[in-house]
Amino acid sequence: MLSAAELKGMYVPVVTPFLPNGELDLVSYGTYVKHLLEKDIDGLVVGGTTGESPTISWEEVEALVLATREAMRSRSVPIVVGTGTNSTADTVRRTEMAGRIGADAALVVTPYYSRPSEAGIVEHYRRASRTGVPVIAYEIPARTGVRLSAGTMRTILDLEGVIGLKDSSGSLNLLQELSRADTKPVLCGEDSLLSDMLRQGASGGISASANVRTADFIEVCRQAAAGNHAAAERTFDGLRPLIQDLFREPSPAPLKWLLARQSLLADDAVRLPMSPITPELQARLSRYVAG
Fold it and tell me: Which residue in 8, 11, 138, 256 is the catalytic one?
């Protein structure tokens, strides 16, 4: 199981490869995960938003975790499984099941769509944190419709079973507020803010863009951890165009297109309501194919 002290560095959220008929492509997945493991990453996130979590079944999540374990025969890293939903009972059930299939931690998003009270959200996390599986809270107001106060997030982070936070709040404000007092680790979940958040005290990142030029993203984290923020910023400046291009259209379609062109996936298929990227973006992304 993952501890708060181990929650640092670059965690890569994986895509879920599909065949043209929409079925899981576990052959491509194994090749792709082995490629990431060669890059000295600090962990993997399976079944998150980058993995198209709204359209994959729990049975498919189980198959992906099993395939991830199979790919780790030469090198093992922590596996974080996305288990959060807008139903507390279902989140608890999925978190328990994640533990049974070997997850080292669960990524639990703030309940979305129903826009519950902050008290309800705290109780949601409290119940998930009692499962025995370490929980990483996930704040992403742009997708959930709710923005938590720093005080409420501190309350969540104070829960015994919560080991840290993925901060995709879209600014530095939450991290700055949390940093004013001792708090559990915060991972940057907003790719474009990685360097800034590391400078403000984030312990690492969960970055979809790190599927490409992975070694450079790792270097940014390592330079920042060593206090070499100027060097980290210089490396990160070279990554900004890639990050911008990967998010010009809804993720992970641009990322899957690029991974397929790099021969890491057999196909760039996504599941509706996601759709293929435009020819204009394909032309922009073509410059990264060799990378």
Answer: 138
Active site residue 138: yes
Averages of pLDDT over runs of 10 residues in the chain (291 residues) are 97 98 97 96 98 98 98 94 98 98 98 97 98 98 96 98 98 96 94 98 98 98 98 98 98 98 97 98 93 53
User: Could you tell me the sign of the dihedral formed by the alpha carbons of 101, 35, 217, 210, in that order?
Assistant: negative
Helix (H, G, I), strand (E, B) or coil at 132: coil
Closest C-alpha among 189, 135, 199 to residue 2: 135
Q: Which of 166, 184, 256, 288 is an active site residue?
A: 166
Is 34 part of the annotated catalytic residue set? Answer: no
Residues in contact with 163: Cβ distance below 8 Å, sequence separation at least 6, in sequence order: 2, 3, 4, 7, 105, 134, 135, 136, 184, 185
pTM of the predicted protein model: 0.97
